[in-house]
């Protein structure tokens, strides 16, 4: 499947030039050699098939990729952490907004944990308390189910021990640190990157997106509601009750199916001007999933009982229309603020 990266979209401000450095939220993807850094980025942000990650070339230097999502992103894919000098690490930490540290669960993770705690120490040293660290405990699908959580918890505990040894457990860095079990072979990698992106959205803005989605969820008597980045399959907002992975996985599968079909039949899923009535649905006997394209990059997915969809379709469509208009207004305002702040 060929998906577009969004490097071609450059923000422009009418009366000034946007400072690209401040406009984009930078995410450093780091970890030891061959832990799976480039694969994670390629699968999520470039639609590479998991089995094709076997052929991704070795990353020799820092590669920056822009991706227009609900937050403009710049992904910094780095060579192995062992190949980066201490000064270079400090420079990178000063310049990014979030760090994804990938640990191969099958590797000798003592080394990875040591490198990670060095990085935390470096971030503390330069006072980069605003940085959010995410640890991807990766290639989880290679473990038998009964060992997954044991190993995951073991790595998490050892990192927490390191944090206590460094006496930084009360810093913002330690408080915001999150661990994600990941694999490119299932939906966990989308779930993990969704969390990375959602952490980059300021809390009050995220609150606005969630309030809108919660009212839509209520007014449509929906079972779940997600706002997705349609190209990267990232959940960028969810109604409060949508926490279970199965509904997320189902939505990702549906989205992938639609994108694959759009590639085959040339549908307007990624057209510049999105028709506001563009939607499609999968109606099963009990439940229905409905998809609406909201903007070129964002789509809404609602899970509704099939009975409700049959009986209340008109009202639901109307509510979505109102939701879309409100969301577009919020998005325009936020983008304007972001541009003004980065001139
Ligand atoms: N089993 C498994 N292998 C993976 C996964 N992600 C990446 N790999 C493999 O790990 C190897 C190194 O990947 P690469 O992305 O080049 O690692 P990097 O050096 O950290 O950028 C490749 O052979 C990938 O196919 C995963 O989730 N599961
Ligand atoms: Mg690489």
TrEMBL record:
SUPFAM superfamilies attached to this UniProt entry: P-loop containing nucleoside triphosphate hydrolases
Keywords for this protein: GTP-binding, Nucleotide-binding
Any one Gene Ontology BP term: cellular response to starvation
Pfam families per UniProt: Gtr1_RagA (PF04670)
Annotated GO CC locations: fungal-type vacuole membrane; Gtr1-Gtr2 GTPase complex; nucleus
Gene3D superfamilies: 3.30.450.190, P-loop containing nucleotide triphosphate hydrolases
GO molecular function: GTP binding; GTPase activity
Family: Belongs to the GTR/RAG GTP-binding protein family.
Family annotation (PANTHER family): GH16429P (PTHR11259:SF2), RAS-RELATED GTP BINDING RAG/GTR YEAST (PTHR11259)
Chain's role: GTPase involved in activation of the TORC1 signaling pathway, which promotes growth and represses autophagy in nutrient-rich conditions.
Subunit relationships: Component of the GSE complex.
Name of the protein this chain belongs to: GTP-binding protein
């Amino acid at each position: 499947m060929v998906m577009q990266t969004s490097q071609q979209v450059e923000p422009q401000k009418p009366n000034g030039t946007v400072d690209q450095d401040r406009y984009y939220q930078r995410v450093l993807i780091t970890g030891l050699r061959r832990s799976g850094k480039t694969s994670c980025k390629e699968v999520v942000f470039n639609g590479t098939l998991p089995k094709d990650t076997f052929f991704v070339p070795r990353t020799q230097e820092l590669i920056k990729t822009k991706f227009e999502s609900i937050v403009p992103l710049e992904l910094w894919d780095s060579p192995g952490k062992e190949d980066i000098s201490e000064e270079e690490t400090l420079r990178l930490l000063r310049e990014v907004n979030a760090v994804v540290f990938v640990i191969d669960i099958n590797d000798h993770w003592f080394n990875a944990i040591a490198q990670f705690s060095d990085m935390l120490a470096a971030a503390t040293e330069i006072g980069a308390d605003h940085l959010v660290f995410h640890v991807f405990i990766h290639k989880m699908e290679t473990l038998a189910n009964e060992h997954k959580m044991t190993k995951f918890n073991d790595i998490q505990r050892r990192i927490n021990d390191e944090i206590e040894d460094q006496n930084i457990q009360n810093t913002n860095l330690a408080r915001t640190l999150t661990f994600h079990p990941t694999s490119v072979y299932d939906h966990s990698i989308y779930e993990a990157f969704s969390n990375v992106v959602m952490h980059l959205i300021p809390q009050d803005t995220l609150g606005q997106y969630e309030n809108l989605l919660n009212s839509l969820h209520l007014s449509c008597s929906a079972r779940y509601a997600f706002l997705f980045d349609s190209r990267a399959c990232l959940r960028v907002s969810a109604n409060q009750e949508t926490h279970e992975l199965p509904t997320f996985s189902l939505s990702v599968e549906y989205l992938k199916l639609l994108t694959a079909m759009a590639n085959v039949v040339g549908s307007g899923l990624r057209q510049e001007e999105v028709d506001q009535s563009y939607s499609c649905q999968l109606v099963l006997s009990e439940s229905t999933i409905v998809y609406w394209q909201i903007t070129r990059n964002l789509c809404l997915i609602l899970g509704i009982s099939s009975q409700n969809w049959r009986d209340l379709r008109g009202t639901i469509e109307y509510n979505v229309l109102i939701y879309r208009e409100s969301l577009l207004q919020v998005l325009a305002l936020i983008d304007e603020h972001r541009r003004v702040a980065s001139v």
